[in-house]
Design brief:
The chain has about 210 residues and is an alpha+beta fold. The chain has four helices and twelve strands. It has helices spanning about 1-25, 105-110, 150-160, 190-195, and strands at about 40, 45-50, 55-60, 65-70, 75-80, 115, 120, 130, 140-145, 145-150, 170, 200-205. It is elongated and about 70 Å long.
Amino acid sequence: MIRPIMCLAMLGLAACEGGLAALWMAPPKAVARALPTLHPVSGRLGVVVSSARPQQVALAPNERVNVLQSAKLGEEAWLVRVSVAPASAPKEPQETAFGGIARERLITMLSEAPSAVVGLRLDSSLLVLEDQRGLSRQGRVIRCDGEPVTSSLALRACLVLARGGAPKLEFEPVVSETPSVTDAPTTPALADRLVRADAGYPVDGGGEAP
């Protein structure tokens, strides 16, 4: 009579151990979600196509970086500043360098976005034509908030991210005489609209040191 009872007890213990094992099974590994790709503009600035505000972006298949700042440009377009600059950011972005967003379309998005006001008129080479705040700023804009400014597109991007403050601009002296305001009509019409520092819907952030 004892042996059948012992057998039943052993069977019950085995069943219990099996149930505990099922409870302590390791959870399935989470499937890694693909990060949106950064399309560089200049330095740490770039464009990301994402349905949600990006927190991290991919520079390469196995390289991801954190997003420090972001500004929405369109339904799924974001302007971002990342923690590390891509190793091979182009000096002048190409037409198809923004995840399907043409360069002209990106320029329009940046023009329509709120941006910082710095009170400068520049020509197409980013040379100061007029300092509207009387701060005697002269030369060519070469950096904005630490990012290299190699094109009007890069400058616009920096001003959009700095829309609530006063971006720090750095200038490169030029040997030739700075053009006067009267020379402005001879510059391309693009200069006054595309490169004008207070374009878009301004948020006056005050002046900054030369």
